[in-house]
Every structure is written in C-alpha cells, then in structure tokens.
Amino acid sequence: MTFVPTALTFGPTPAAAPAPALPAELIALQRAVLTADRAVGDHAVAVRNRRLTAFPGPEQAVQRCTWEPGEQLEFDRRWEAYVRAGAAVRDHPVLVRARVLGVEAAVLRAIREAATGPA
After folding, report:
1. How far apart are CA 60 and CA 52, in angstroms?
2. Which tens digit of pLDDT belongs to each residue from 14-33?
3. Rg for the chain (alpha carbons), in Å?
4. Residues 6+ positions from 39 with CB-CB distance below 8 Å
5. What 3-state DSSP class applies to 12?
6. Under a CB-based contact definition with an 8 Å cutoff, are residues 40 and 82 in contact?
7. CA 21 from chain center: how many Å?
8. How far, CA to CA in Å, does 15 sit from each of 9, 10, 12, 20, 22?
9. pTM for this one?
10. What does the pLDDT look like over 76-119, one tens digit per residue?
C-alpha cells in the first residue's frame, strides 16, 4: 500500500492572514502629505522657471538662485504644511503601534499604496 498525502492527512492549507484594514482617516492623512509635497514641488519649479526666464544669462546664476522674499515665504508656508501633514501621519495611533511592533515600514508601504493605488 502506498501512502498518498491528502488534505485529510495534512489538514487544509493555511491561507495567509488578511491584512488589517487601514482606517480611512489615515489614508486621508497620507493623501494630504502627497498633496502638500506636490504643492512644495510645484512652487519650487514655478519659481525656478520664472527666475530662469528673468535671468537667462550664464553670468546671472546668482540672480536665478536668489529667491525674492515673497517667493521664500510662500515656499516656507508650503513646507510647514508638508511637515504638519507628515507629523499627523507619523503620530496616528496605527503608525505608533506599527513602530512599536517593528512593522512600520510595511504599514507605511500599505498606506502609500492605499493613498495612491498599486505601483
């Protein structure tokens, strides 16, 4: 008689445990981070383009790189919004717990994917 393993001898194959659902407010916070990041980048690119147009010559490199006070203030305002948005994500109880459990990187990846869709 030959022994043939079956589901009865080994039991059912364990399925991977489903990942816990992420709270909608945490996904919304991550979307706010992405929006704030985009706002910072958009402003920096707009300033760069304006200054490149205004000071195109190679001898005008300093003028291209020296922002007007209003440009800098707007950048600082957008940067602070980005920093606050990031802090809200980091301080969310789900992320605090993930940090304690040593799974923060995986949870951050899941949050980013939920906020943006699969890569």
Report:
1. 9
2. 454 445 689 999 999 999 99
3. 25
4. 78, 81, 82
5. coil
6. yes
7. 18
8. 17, 14, 9, 15, 20
9. 0.77
10. 999 999 999 999 999 999 999 999 999 999 999 999 999 998 65
